[in-house]
Amino acid sequence: MSQTILVTGASSGIGQATARLLAERGFRVFGTARKPDSATAQGFTMVALDVRSDASVRACVEQVLAAAGSLDVLVNNAGYAVTGAAEETSVDEAKAQFETNFFGSVRMVNAVLPGMRARGAGKIINVSSLAGSTAIPYSAFYSASKFALEGYSESLWYEVRQFGISVSLVEPGFVNTPIGEASPAAAQPLAAYDASRKRMLQAFGHALEGGIRPEQVASRVLQIVEQKQPGLRYRVGTQATWLPRVRSVVPWRVYAAGVRKTFAV
Fold first, then answer.
1. 3-class SS at 121?
2. Structural domain range at position 86
3. Is 228 a catalytic residue?
4. Alpha-carbon span 63 to 69, nearest angstrom
């Protein structure tokens, strides 16, 4: 019997590539977007979802369960990035970042766990980032939201394994997606940061252009779905594989110098 999979943030980028690949492999896939009518479904069913809303999350999961009867795998992918210096970013902007990237995942997990616990099976796959282990300058709250997702997922792994539920993190490095173009800038820029912010954003754009394809991340998600006992962390791409290892063995000043060079700060 084919498994039912829900992929959030499936209108473009990693989410769309993941939903499309899983559908091609014969899974019953539901993708989500805040405005599903404006998203092009490619072999999967699109449903409306705003992960910032408890009511929207509840309605989305109920819709999937009504159509499919059960939900086997949740892929938490919805997210965005606020760019700007930490000082330039208001508390409200920081909260909004967390509402989507972190609490959005928490809402989705809480909505699907009762059914998974009752069935004694399920997989939760949270799409994190290399930024969840090594912070990116001028993306303090995006990095913080991914660091939070990492810690939350690790704790959750311990708690739900007794119910036959696995928790996995997918940690890509730079991915060639529209996230850079779609990233809102902090609303109150400060002149003191203008020069270094501009250099960083140019370097970040070049890094995304040279990044891995979203299909590579999708393949890693498929691997987790097909495994009987998936692990906790899956790194995708060269940077995501070797940078955390380098950080663990070289002095901070050496590692930090490399990050500063990469982002021209």
1. coil
2. 4-262
3. no
4. 10
pLDDT digits (tens, 9 = 90+) for 226-265: 999 999 999 999 989 999 999 999 999 999 999 999 999 9
In this structure, what token pair is assigned to residue 132? 């969840």
- Asked if 142 is an active-site residue, the reply is yes
261: annotated active-site residue? no
Q: Which pLDDT value is given to residue 112?
A: 98
- In angstroms, the CA 145 to CA 79 distance is 10
What's the pLDDT band for 120 if we cut at 50, 70, 90?
Answer: very high
> Which residue(s) pair with 236 in the sheet?
172
**128, 129, 133, 143: which is the annotated catalytic residue?**
128
| Displacement of CA 204 from its chain's centroid (Å) | 18
Q: What is the pTM of this model?
A: 0.95
Q: Compute the distance between CA of residue 209 and CA of residue 31 in angstroms, rounded to an integer.
A: 25
CATH number (domain holding residue 47):
3.40.50.720
